[in-house]
Amino acid sequence: MLETRSLTKSFGAVHVTRAVSLKLERGERRVILGPNGAGKTTLFNLLVGELTPDSGSVHLAGEDVTALTVPRRARRGLSRSYQKNTLFDGLTVEENLALAAAVNTGHATRLWSDSLSRPEIRETLAEVAHQVNLMPYLHARVSEISYGVRRQLEVGVALATRPLVLLMDEPTSGVGPEMSKGFHELLNNLPRDLTLLIIEHDMDLAFDVADTITVLNYGEVVFDGLPDAARGSKLLKDIYLGSWEDA
Amino acid sequence: MFRHTPLRYAVLAILAIAALMQAFTAGYFGLEILIEILILCLLVLALDLVAGFGGMVSLCHGALMGVGAYAFVALNALAGLDPWLAALGAVAITAAVAWVIGAVCARSHGIYFIMATLAFGQMGYSYVFSAPLFGGDDGIGGIDRFDLTALGIDLSDSRTFALFCLAVLAAAYLFTVAILRSGLGRSLAGVMHNEKRMKALGLITWRVKADVFGLSGVIAGVAGVLAAQHIQFISPGLMNWTVSGEALVVVILGGLGTLVGPLVGAAAFVVMKHQLGEITTYWHLIVGVILIAVVMSRANGIFGWVEARWGARIERRLSDATRASTPKEVSTDA
């Protein structure tokens, strides 16, 4: 469903992504681990088109999308949530979800109909609001809801485009232990045919959700395998404890 | 996202009643002032649509109104087309020009957007200033008003023309509200709040901005056609950047992004201009001081200040009254 081939990116002399090749099957849930500065978010930016790779390619559902812009990749089914909330703060939760759903259904540019009143949009936003537990907050403005609920909305907005592949950049970033548990359930309840690529520092969540785990360090893939193998990996422990050295 | 509140409805009603009273009771000069206000209202409505709801602060809207006026003159006075057909053509031309400006400028933001629109406006001004076809800096006359004599309406009469302008303004207001409540209008709000996220969701944002700029051009074009018919003479001054600057002052003075506020601002501005103009030729200085006071007060213009002070109170009272008038459930238990 999503594939990268030797994706490489440098900023001057700093190599942030080094020949990263990944292949995610449809419905696969992969968690990307790695210390700060490992190039995880840069990899996401390369996947969605916010950055252009120096070399290598990105393929979505068999199509080479490397040359496509951010909106065109999104329209082909690649959606993302951000590490820092990137929401429409002056609007309500319902309006945030409707904006995303309207783009997907082609109502976002229509002049003579209100996207929010369209049955297909209302259906999508109700379904997504239920999936990410936002039903009680639909009419609240983003500025009125708590940080944790905003994190749920961040995922909800990405989901409302009905993506084929959803990239989540630290969905539990900054939330407390209770809410983090809620995210375990939320992620496990997402449709099984949805392909997920998640950057996460919360190991419990990573091992709970992941079908496969990829570890990045200094921009390159240093581990790619099943969660059980990752759990027992000395390399992974060393990276997180800081004693790993460039191999 | 644009919402009509009880206060906004109330202010609209007050403005409409005041305009109707002025139209039916004023003498010639009073009617001229009313028409000037109504045409300025159209222009600031067009500007508020892009600046207040799309974050596109334009300094070419005066020039767009000028495009509407000059295109109307070209099609009516020069090409000899019927005024209605000429008006239709002029509005279409203005919308197309506005769309192109919007499409080119959509990729810039903030001061760069303002400067790019200013450059477009001044290009138009420079062209008509030196174009012999349009009379150069002398301007051009011989402009017809719409002919509605078949309906028994004589638009050469100032009172009737003022009422006609008021009807056009009402239609333009409803058109603007319809845009803001459409899928396109909601996307525009999304782009203004967070363009990066709208792109990530799959929206081609420059296209949304260009489309709304084009629609804003429709309203500016209508303002231009009415401005040309009002004095039946136009000159390059109509396209000068100072017209765009004044329109922006009016929008800020009234309340950016409220639709109702700029209408209040237009009325206040024109009345101040004429009243203060009778006292001193330096009336701009006084308007400037008022504008600085409004901006420094951190209120969103005159209407924004009123809305912040009384809007919530009025809504609370109305909802209390609604609750009180709702019949209570009666227990049927024995």
TrEMBL record, chain A:
Single Gene Ontology MF annotation = ATP binding
Instruction: Alphabetically list the UniProt keywords.
Output: ATP-binding, Nucleotide-binding, Transport
- Extract the InterPro entries matched here: AAA+_ATPase (IPR003593), ABC_AA/LPS_Transport (IPR051120), ABC_transporter-like_ATP-bd (IPR003439), P-loop_NTPase (IPR027417)
Keyword set includes Ligase: no
Q: Name one Pfam family in it.
A: ABC_tran
Q: What are its GO cellular component terms?
A: plasma membrane
Which segments constitute the ABC transporter domain?
2-243
User: What PROSITE patterns does UniProt report for this protein, alphabetically?
Assistant: ABC_TRANSPORTER_2 (PS50893)
Under PANTHER family, the record lists: ABC TRANSPORTER ATP-BINDING PROTEIN, CONSERVED COMPONENT OF ABC TRANSPORTER FOR NATURAL AMINO ACIDS-RELATED
Annotated protein name in UniProt: Amino acid/amide ABC transporter ATP-binding protein 1 (HAAT family)
Q: Which organism is it from?
A: Roseicyclus mahoneyensis
UniProtKB/TrEMBL annotation, chain B:
Record's bilayer topology term: Multi-pass membrane protein
- On whether Membrane is a keyword of this UniProt record, the answer is yes
Q: Which CDD domains has this protein been placed in? A: TM_PBP1_LivM_like
User: Which PANTHER family does its entry note?
Assistant: ABC TRANSPORTER ATP-BINDING PROTEIN (PTHR30482:SF17), HIGH-AFFINITY BRANCHED-CHAIN AMINO ACID TRANSPORT SYSTEM PERMEASE (PTHR30482)
Principal localization? membrane
Keyword annotations: Cell membrane, Membrane, Transmembrane, Transmembrane helix
What the entry lists under Pfam families is as follows: BPD_transp_2
Cellular component GO terms, alphabetical? plasma membrane
One function term, GO molecular function aspect: branched-chain amino acid transmembrane transporter activity
What protein name applies here? Amino acid/amide ABC transporter membrane protein 2 (HAAT family)
Q: Where do transmembrane segments lie in this chain?
A: 33-51, 58-78, 84-104, 111-129, 161-180, 201-227, 247-270, 282-306
Q: Where in the cell is it found?
A: Cell membrane
